[in-house]
Amino acid sequence: MNAIRSIRTPAELTDAGLVAPDRLAGIERLAERYAIAISPAMAALIDRADPNDPIARQFVPDAAELNVTPEERADPIGDLAHSPVEGIVHRYPDRVLLKAVHVCPVYCRFCFRREMVGPQGLGTLSPDAMDVAFAYIGDHPEIWEVILTGGDPLVLSPRRLTEIMQRLSAIDHVKIVRFHTRVPVVEPERIDDALIAALMASGKTAYVALHANHPRELTPTARAACARLVDSGIVMISQSVLLKGVNDDPDTLAALMRAFVETRVKPYYLHHPDLAPGTSHFRLSIEEGRALVAGLRGRISGLCQPTYILDIPGGHGKAAIGPDAIRQEYAGRYTVSDFKGVEHTYPPSE
Ligand SMILES: *Cc1c(COP(=O)(O)O)cnc(C)c1O
Ligand code: SF4
């Protein structure tokens, strides 16, 4: 059970006790379509005695993924609508995504880019495409921030990352480099001195947005990896997806947000699940999501509050969809709810 390398095939899933032999045929069909990877750290975290284990649910493929509903789409957040050159997504004026690589250390079953990542995905940017992407960033002085995502940029070797960072370092108008990653949790052993030096090599202010969805993912080893990043001067923020059967209850969400804050990772975004193909078993309603987020306000520190986000299908960008504390009754008169849900008039009537 102490896998030293990642689980990547249906047969390895059965060997590891993660898929019952009678379900193997369905998973083999699924594997033709979507990539599978479970890192050793995540395989070790799965409780095989629990049929509803929230870690297994995120990474072990399920035949339910073959059910595609009419509203689902291959490019749920409209990356392609805003891609001026290969590898760049430029939706907001002051920041771009740079997708250098479409490989991940794990493949999440609810992934919003599941049609683009993995061995059959968009691959790694060629040297020529990389030149074009950097020329684009250099030619657009309004680009203040470059967000490395993918795929998971921290699967790149420190040498490749350093090359990318040195090229960013030469572009004066870029002030912030942000990395979106799952590596500190799913492959914490990668966060070593060489990788950290590579992340810092641009000389720009570096942010790492850590993707994790369940408090058990923040193991002592994962927390130590985050501590190495933060101690090196990198600012960490969190990113989670609200997922049915993983974190859609008040206790789990509160524990997750507290685990981030204890780890010096500031909760940033809680995403409503995107309309990715074959993911309807993970989706809850926006009303359910808003009720869960309202519950957080009532029970945990302000430090632990994420912003609830919907990425509007079609490439229209993100919108904050959290519960509204205030409602206008008429001009100059409001009703505002306190953290217990009790309503008050503003300004006060007397
Ligand atoms: C999500 C996203 C960003 C980052 O948005 P923030 O609100 O700054 O975190 C930037 N560009 C694109 C295309 C995105 O999808
Ligand atoms: S790490 Fe991110 S990009 Fe990779 S499979 Fe998971 S959600 Fe998708």
Automatic annotation (TrEMBL):
Keywords, alphabetical: 4Fe-4S, Iron, Iron-sulfur, Isomerase, Metal-binding, Pyridoxal phosphate, S-adenosyl-L-methionine
Cofactor: [4Fe-4S] cluster; pyridoxal 5'-phosphate
Xref: Pfam families: LAM_C, Radical_SAM
All residue ranges annotated as the Radical SAM core domain in the record: 90-303
Modified positions (N6-(pyridoxal phosphate)lysine) in chain numbering: 318
InterPro entries assigned: Aldolase_TIM (IPR013785), LAM_C_dom (IPR025895), Lys_aminomutase-rel (IPR022447), Lys_aminomutase/Glu_NH3_mut (IPR003739), rSAM (IPR007197), rSAM_sf (IPR058240)
Domain of life: Bacteria
CDD domains cross-referenced by the UniProt entry: Radical_SAM
Keyword Magnesium part of the UniProt annotation: no
GO MF term (any one): isomerase activity
Binding positions for [4Fe-4S] cluster per the UniProt entry: 104, 108, 111
Family the entry assigns: Belongs to the radical SAM superfamily. KamA family.
NCBIfam families referenced in this protein's UniProt entry, alphabetically: AblA_like_2, KamA family radical SAM protein
Name of the protein in its database record: Lysine-2,3-aminomutase-like protein
The organism of origin for this protein: Microvirga tunisiensis
Lineage: Bacteria, Pseudomonadati, Pseudomonadota, Alphaproteobacteria, Hyphomicrobiales
